[in-house]
Amino acid sequence: MALANLIFNGLHDIQATRFSQLASSAIIIFDHIITLDAEVELIWMSPWSMGKGLFVINRYYTLISVIINNYALFSPSLTDSVRLRFFRWQGWTGLIACMIAEVILQMRLYALYFLNKKVLALMVATFIVSSASSAVIMGSVLNGITAVSHPIPGITFCTPIGVPDYFFAFWIPIIGFESLLCGLALYRGFQTFRASGSLFQSGRHLVAILIRDSVLYFLVMFATYLTNMLVWISASPNLLEVPIAFSVALACCLGNRMILNVREVNREIEHTKEREKEYRDTGSGVTVESIKHQTRQTRSSVFGPSEQLTDIEMAQLRSMRADQSYTGFIVL
């Protein structure tokens, strides 16, 4: 009876891991499909920049990891040594995915604080400490584990052996750093509603999008990372891969959405400027109302339903272009 229960639980863990990998892969692929048109228009048709490079790495490195992960979890022919290398690659991939998304978020916050060097120094220093701490824990664990290809007779599956109890500590530095970034975004958001007559106020719609995306990213990723940590504390080693697949998928999708969202708003600003210039130069009957209507038609919110802009907000968005270095850093 005890052996039967052990086999049943093992099969249950294997199925849960495989289904979670398929589910997280579906999230990534679906997000790729529904944002492909925006990617072509906003990323590939723009010049190369730091933001474009981060987007491409975040999007396609994760897509490659989806292919490798599914092959490793479903392939019946991999040896123990190959599966051990897969575990090590998968562990570092999870950390890299988190780091890329955090870099994107830091760049947004740096723009929100008007390229404040002190804020940048705080974020970079904390990011280095957080990433290094998680990397040390990950490296220590991966160097001490082994892998088994056949945990149950007749069943081929990657199973880690020798995972230490402290592995959950990997998530503590990441959660702490994400909390710092969220606090910075909330503080800047509080200042937004108190500011008036400044560049920050004049571009408050674009800034509000940056704040919204940053806070929403934190809420989703905090819940994901906390779930990972709780599962790693209480679950068996066979289930360690269940939540981490979702952390990679969500970090990838939300990081890319932040870049696409801001670039779309910037395109709206450029479109409004072009239409107004045409109106001034040709007097072809293009009215301010028609400009605003067409701009509303082209705008779509990445995280939620479309929002209509008031006349004042349109003027504020246009005036944001007064500071080219600031706005250029935002759109990257």
From TrEMBL:
Membrane-traversing stretches: 54-74, 86-107, 119-146, 166-187, 214-233
A family per Pfam: DUF6533
Domain DUF6533: 20-64
Keywords, in A-Z order: Membrane, Transmembrane, Transmembrane helix
Record bears the keyword Transmembrane: yes
Superkingdom to which the source organism belongs: Eukaryota
Protein name, entry field: DUF6533 domain-containing protein
Biological source species: Mycena venus
